[in-house]
Design goal:
The protein is an all-alpha fold. The chain is built from six helices and no strands.
C-alpha cells in the first residue's frame, strides 16, 4: 500500500466533527459574552504577565515568545490592554516582590 499525504489528511478530516469557524465563533460568544479576538487577547496578556515576572527574559525575548513581529507591536498591544508598558509593568512586579 502506498502512502499519500493527501489521503491521510482527508481520512483525518472525516474523523473530526464538522464545525465551521462561524459556528465556533458564535458558540464562544454565546457562552462567554466575548468575541474570540477578545479571548485571544486575554490569554496573550495573561501569558505576557507570567513571562514578565521572569527577570531573566528580556522584553524582546518575551515579544518573540508571544509571536509578535516586532517588540514595539508587543509594547503597544500590552499598553493598550493593561495601561502599562511592559517595562513599567515589570518594574511594578519587582517592587511588589521586594
Amino acid at each position: 500500500m502506498e502512502f499519500h499525504q493527501g489521503d491521510y489528511i482527508s481520512k483525518e478530516k472525516r474523523l473530526l466533527p464538522t464545525a465551521t469557524s462561524k459556528y465556533l465563533t458564535t458558540t464562544i460568544n454565546e457562552i462567554t459574552g466575548k468575541s474570540t479576538g477578545k479571548i485571544i487577547e486575554i490569554f496573550v496578556v495573561q501569558e505576557a504577565h507570567m513571562l514578565l515576572d521572569n527577570p531573566t527574559l528580556s522584553i524582546a525575548q518575551i515579544s518573540d515568545e508571544l509571536n509578535f513581529s516586532h517588540q514595539s507591536f508587543f509594547g503597544k498591544f500590552f499598553k493598550r490592554l493593561t495601561g502599562f508598558s511592559p517595562s513599567a509593568y515589570r518594574k511594578i512586579l519587582i517592587n511588589l516582590n521586594q
